[in-house]
Amino acid sequence: MDIVIDSLTYTYPGQAAPALKDVSLEIGAGELCCLIGANGAGKSTLCCAIAGFVPHFYKGEMYGSVVVGGVDTVQRSIGDLARRVGIVFQNPFDQITGATLTVFAEVAFGLENLGTPRDETRRRIEDVLRKVGLWELRDRSPLELSGGQQQRLAIASVLAMDPPIIVLDEATSQLDPAGTRDIWRIIARLHAAGKTLLVAEHKMEYVARHASKVVLLQGGKVIACGSPREVLGRDDLARCGVRRPPFMEIMRGLTQRGLWQGPMPLTLEDAAAVLKEVARR
Amino acid sequence: MKPLTPYVHRNSPIHRLNPLTKGAFFLCVVIVAFTAPFLWVVLSLLGAVVIVAAAAKVTRNLIALVLKSAFLIVVLIFIVQGLFYPGSKAALWTIGPVTVWREGLRFASFTASRLLAIIAATVLFMLTTRAEDLVSEMMAHGLSRKLGYVVLMSMQIMPQMQARAAAILDAQRSRGLETEGGLMKRFRAYVPIIGPLVVGSIISLETRSLAIEARGFSSSTRRVRVEEIHDSRGEQMARWAAAAAMASFVVWRLVSWISSLIR
């Protein structure tokens, strides 16, 4: 297991109610685990707990344990955990260090801090910038990129440090459809390359299509954890503040009317194929 | 977004010098221009700055920027000193009630030359040195990583803050905030702008500090910058020589100043 969370309860300083309540979770190596739930359900807090920002950065009160890649996060510094867990946040602009003049130097920032030898740094930067499609823009100022490009840059900066685990905290929520598609294409490729990914996401069609595991949170508690078909098929999904993709609602309607008994399709293309078959009958 | 420093990229030997070497000579010019007792020293410094600017292929930028920043104050120095220099005896011209004094003009040209030499040296330094390179070199020579980051980030973030303030101003105006009129009215208009600006900046700073922490910012390993900055034995010696020359120059000026006081 790459990430093992055991009865984690965490309260931000100055808050009465805990943001996470008795969360236990196991995420295997190479898994693409999606966190879903309404705003304030605890998705971001859980992401921060895995990266060690909870409790190292935010302080507050924490019970239970978070073990990442075999080490307890409480016993390691954030700087040390940065080699194990990379994290990408919601706002593309706020993740730019602001201390670099080019995209190339921006990606170099983390590697420079870790004292990586120059040749190695250069090789890795070229590799990750090609992976996210920003190699041609390497001499541009990071502040002049579009939101989608900045978000890809944030991913590249994290990837360059080559952590086995990558956390994306609603990384697509401020992006347009094209930007979202780009990010998910990168996520899928990282998944195929064997990285362990934890992705907090509101856009359910991507969750349904790509996730190997889905965790549903509400009010700081884990409500459900399982395959996308199991979790997204739950009747209480709307009550937890999550909307299924429209094609899933249609398929559920078909199932309720007895028109389709097969497994729930997870992509729009599969749903279309099922609909065609149902229409033919 | 306009960068805060006027750096101009050119392929010149001056641009290729180590930022610290340029910084050392820049400080030399400032110290000498500020304390030199003879006008010809100051003028030859000014000449040297222009010659170096020519070698760096930035003469035009230098002249434009120096004129822009110094023109008004130089004119003021000539007017004020020329007309009101205390203890003036030799009148140059008298036009009605206004008398231009020779001593005043001499003092004004000395002061203005000092000022021009200092400003020209500053502008030349900024035209040929990227702030990022300078700070990186200083970090490599012991400046703390945190301080270096703060300096670099503030320079890049200031234009961002301005843009954000302008956006908030427009948003508040479109909701009927009056920003024109009397002093009090304009002052009151700032309150609903400062609030969102400060709160927004604090929030984005939190994310930014998380983001740089996630990139090993507080790692205790020695930083290795990917872009190598040229430095040589010769340049190091030149820097030490410049520092030594400056130290002895300052001591000389202090000694002659004190001995003039005693006498």
Report on this model:
The complex is a heterodimer of chains A (281) and B (263). With 281 residues, chain A is α/β, with parallel strands linked by helices. Chain A is built from eleven helices and ten strands. Chain A folds into two domains: 3-235, 3-Layer(aba) Sandwich (Rossmann fold); 245-281, no CATH class. Chain A has helices at 43-51, 53-56, 78-81, 103-113, 118-131, 147-160, 177-192, 204-210, 228-232, 246-256, 268-280; strands at 3-11, 20-27, 32-36, 61-68, 71-72, 85-88, 165-169, 196-200, 213-218, 221-226. In chain A, 50% of the residues are buried. Chain B has nine helices and two strands; from the N terminus they run ααααββααααα. Chain B has helices at 13-16, 19-35, 39-55, 59-84, 102-128, 131-140, 145-174, 183-213, 233-262, and strands at 91-95, 98-101. In chain B, a hairpin with a 2-residue loop joins strand 1 (91-95) and strand 2 (98-101). In chain B, helix 7 crosses helix 8 (183-213). The longest helix of chain B is centred in the last third of the chain and has 31 residues, at 183-213. At the A-B interface, helix 3, strand 6, helix 4, helix 5 and helix 6 of A face helix 7 and helix 8 of B.
The chain pair with the largest interface is: A-B, 47 and 34 residues
Structural class computed from helices and strand pairing of chain A: alpha/beta
Q: Which stretches of chain A are low in confidence, meaning pLDDT under 50 for 5 or more residues running?
A: none
Terminal residue distance of chain B: 57 Å
Task: State the end-to-end CA separation of chain A.
Answer: 46 Å
Radius of gyration of chain A: 20 Å
What value does the Rg of chain B take, in angstroms?
24 Å
**SS element count, helices of chain B:** 9
Can you tell me the overall shape of chain A? globular
Strand content of chain A: 15-25%
Q: List the uncertain runs of chain B.
A: none
Structural class of chain B: mainly alpha
Outline of chain B, from the CA principal axes? globular
CATH architecture of the largest domain in chain A, by name, is 3-Layer(aba) Sandwich
Strand order of the largest sheet of chain B: 1-2
- Nearest-integer average pLDDT of chain A: 93
Number of strands of chain B: 2
Number of domains of chain B: 2
Q: Please estimate the helix content of chain B.
A: over 70%
Quaternary assembly: heterodimer
